[in-house]
């Protein structure tokens, strides 16, 4: 398997500070984006990003080329740390429970200025079931291919597509006021 | 020479595609993209794209967070700490006779960890967290297609 991060991982394993800096420059924005979108909290997202890199520093030396892409592994780590946090918050839904999650339009939908539109979208994302949120983050915001996103989520592509479609339908309802 | 035609896609397949992936062709799977682009350019395709376009426009308002200088510095400092610790472990391992000097130069971070601590077993699934191994996602969250 051709892994674009192979050289950097090898450099980190051999203790090259330059490789470490390059890895941070390359991966931190993406890792932070995933954590921020999943958690909706900047402080927690930064903590998760830092914990993710601690694991990268510790495990780069044991990375085995060819089993999976390093980027897939790194995404799995950050997502698992996010789910850790979400469970701590006790707002994880094990199964979709429509009676517990309000998928209606947000009260202020359509009334926000441009400065707050990002907050509306972030709140809408937080309203999604976590697995739908995860799928949309990886495909829409991380621009991952369906195959790479499915690998990260450890599901088949058709399951990913189902999550994406359901997530987008829910977002459309929630953000209805924003789209008119 | 006859031009190769893109595989065709019907209305329902196109609708399912944009329901999942949205209106930007670059997110569409390679296997169907050419056919979908052809359908997109039809009157029917343009109508179907309207809702997907609107949702994508709203979703794109969310700006990507920029890592702060403080966070970047903190992460790099963690890396330096880890490197320094690994070097100390290497020296200790040599002095304790656990490994030969000849191996020290090639000692990787993984071996240093193995010498001193139980192997962290780099998990392909990346399920290690502060609370130990997470159960797999399939065990606690199921989304039936």
Automatic annotation (TrEMBL), chain A:
Keywords: DNA-binding, Plasmid, Sigma factor, Transcription, Transcription regulation
GO molecular function: DNA binding; sigma factor activity
Biological process annotations from GO: DNA-templated transcription initiation
InterPro entries tied to this protein: RNA_pol_sigma-70-like (IPR039425), RNA_pol_sigma-70_dom (IPR014284), RNA_pol_sigma70_r2 (IPR007627), RNA_pol_sigma70_r4_t2 (IPR013249), RNA_pol_sigma_r2 (IPR013325), RNA_pol_sigma_r3/r4-like (IPR013324), WH-like_DNA-bd_sf (IPR036388)
Top-level lineage group: Bacteria
RNA polymerase sigma factor 70 region 4 type domain: residues covered: 120-171
Keyword DNA-binding: yes
Residues covered by the RNA polymerase sigma-70 region domain: 24-90
Family of the protein in this entry: Belongs to the sigma-70 factor family. ECF subfamily.
Name listed for the protein in its UniProt record: Alternative RNA polymerase sigma factor SigE
Source species: Neorhizobium galegae bv. officinalis bv. officinalis str. HAMBI 1141
């Amino acid at each position: 398997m051709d892994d674009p991060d192979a050289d950097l991982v090898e450099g980190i394993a051999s203790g090259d500070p330059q490789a470490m800096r390059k890895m941070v420059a390359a991966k931190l924005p993406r890792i932070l984006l995933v954590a921020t979108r999943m958690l909706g909290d900047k402080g927690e997202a930064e903590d998760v990003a830092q914990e993710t890199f601690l694991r990268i520093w510790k495990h780069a030396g044991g990375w085995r080329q060819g089993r999976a892409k390093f980027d897939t592994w790194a995404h799995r780590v950050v997502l698992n740390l996010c789910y850790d946090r979400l469970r701590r918050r006790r707002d994880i839904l094990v199964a979709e429970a429509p009676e517990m999650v309000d998928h209606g339009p947000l009260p202020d939908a359509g009334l926000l200025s441009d400065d707050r539109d990002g907050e509306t979208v972030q709140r809408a994302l937080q309203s999604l079931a976590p697995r739908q949120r995860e799928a949309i983050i990886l495909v829409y915001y991380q621009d991952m291919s369906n195959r790479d996103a499915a690998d990260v989520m450890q599901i088949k592509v058709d399951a990913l597509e189902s999550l994406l479609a359901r997530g987008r339908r829910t977002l459309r309802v929630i953000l209805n006021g924003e789209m008119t | 020479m006859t031009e190769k035609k893109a595989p065709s896609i019907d209305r329902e397949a196109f609708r399912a595609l944009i329901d999942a992936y949205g209106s930007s062709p670059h997110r569409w799977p390679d296997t169907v993209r050419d056919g979908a682009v052809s359908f997109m350019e039809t009157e029917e395709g343009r109508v179907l794209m309207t809702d997907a376009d609107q949702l994508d426009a709203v979703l794109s308002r969310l700006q990507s967070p920029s890592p702060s200088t403080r966070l970047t510095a903190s992460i790099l400092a963690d890396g330096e700490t880890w490197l320094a610790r690994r070097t100390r472990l290497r020296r200790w391992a040599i002095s304790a006779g656990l490994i030969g000097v000849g191996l020290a130069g090639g000692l990787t971070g993984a071996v240093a960890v193995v010498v001193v601590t139980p192997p962290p077993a780099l998990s392909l699934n990346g399920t290690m967290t502060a609370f130990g191994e997470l159960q797999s996602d399939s065990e606690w969250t199921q989304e039936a297609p």
